[in-house]
Design a protein that fits this description.
The chain is an alpha/beta fold. The protein has two domains: 214 residues, no CATH class; 122 residues, no CATH class. The protein is globular. The protein starts with 5 loop residues before the first strand and ends with a helix.
């Protein structure tokens, strides 16, 4: 396949792609299943025999890694300086772009396999729904997050009352910012799209069939974006229509619940300070020099305000259900309009708070 072309492969061929990448000197950010199939964690793999077979793409597409884990965070904290191949959602690619600007990762050292992302569901919600149906979650063998959430369990398909995470419902940035291959899970098949010369080279030895799903899948994902645009506009505009006092009171009432646990910081793929054990706000909290939840939360927000990539991981990890991602979406809207900057869109765009951007702004004025 040439750059820009797509084809259909068996899921088993994905491991052959990973084996070829290992042969080319890449370390793979692969998958490890912990307590159950719903509990995926990232692991570094440089031995083909240690690749999970079958590869748990069904879970990864539906839920992502568990808790605060993500490919960019694992890369930055565990595999800096190495040639790495990783799976990434579109929001993960935006994180990689921002991390490269912060001198944390070298994009040329990466082979990026992006997901045609359907959004994410909460694995916790799925397990709870399965139990409500008097079924054993351990008997699940597959899942599909589409217009409805379908689980394959006990040899049958079951529709569960599980929705995409709120942030995924508002996500309109479903195209990757940087990618070598894209994969789209459709039943027991994988659509693969070649996005770079590196991707073309690695696909040379992989068997593929004609992609007869291209138009239907494009229509499906276009529909997701259209629905997300409506949801995003309504939720943000409903908040912005409030008076200044009403917005302030609503925000403060929500933020005051913060326990200063730091899980939102741990989950953020762009907040790299804590990945290397030197996060000041975390240090001050642990030293009990900072105990005000509002100050803690606002410090975190201002720190990340122009580089938030909208992944939404900060919301589901919050023990008191603060909709962190929603407030960042509101902030992102302001940053995009005020500075014409979309975080993670391009490696060539200057961060608004970078010295080059500040000097350029001063020169204009």
């Amino acid at each position: 396949m040439n750059v820009g072309e797509s084809g259909i492969i068996n899921i088993a061929e994905v491991n052959n792609i990973l084996k070829a990448l290992i042969k080319d000197g890449y370390t793979i950010i692969g998958f490890e299943i912990k307590k159950s199939r719903f509990d995926l964690t990232p692991i570094a793999v440089d031995d083909p025999l240690k690749l999970l077979d079958p590869i748990p793409l069904s879970q990864y597409f539906a839920y992502d890694f568990a808790r605060a884990d993500s490919s960019p965070k694992f890369l930055n904290s565990k595999l800096r300086g190495k040639k790495v191949a990783l799976f990434a959602r579109p929001c993960d690619t935006r994180a990689l772009i921002e991390l490269s600007k912060l001198k944390q990762v070298i994009l040329d050292d990466l082979f990026i396999i992006t997901l045609e992302c359907p959004g994410r569901a909460s694995s916790k919600d799925v397990v709870n729904q399965i139990k409500k149906e008097n079924l054993d979650p351990e008997n699940a063998s597959g899942e599909t997050l589409a217009d409805k959430f379908t689980i394959q369990i006990d040899g049958k398909e079951k529709i569960l009352k599980v929705k995409r995470l709120d942030n995924c419902g508002r996500c309109v940035k479903r195209a990757p910012s940087i990618s070598d291959l894209s994969i789209d899970l459709v039943g027991d098949k994988i659509r693969v799209i070649v996005n770079s010369e590196k991707g073309k080279k690695i696909m040379d030895g992989i068997k593929s069939e004609t992609d007869n799903l291209k138009d239907a899948r494009k229509k499906y994902f276009d529909g997701l974006v259209q629905e997300a645009e409506k949801q995003r506009e309504k939720e943000i505009n409903d908040y912005l229509k409030l008076s200044d006092n009403e917005r302030f009171e609503k925000a403060m009432k929500t933020i005051e619940k913060c326990r200063l646990c730091g899980q939102c910081i741990n989950a953020c793929p762009v907040c790299y300070c804590q990945a290397h054990g030197r996060c000041e706000i975390q240090a001050k909290r642990k030293a009990k020099e900072l105990d005000d939840p509002v100050l803690y939360w606002l410090t975190k927000m201002t720190h990340m305000s122009d580089i938030c990539i909208g992944c939404g991981r900060c919301t589901p990890v919050c023990p008191v259900n603060i909709p962190n991602a929603f407030f960042y979406d509101v902030m992102n809207k302001y940053v995009e309009e005020e500075f014409q900057y979309v975080s993670g869109k391009s490696k060539d765009d200057l961060m608004p708070r970078s010295m080059k951007a500040i000097k350029a702004q001063k020169a204009k004025s």
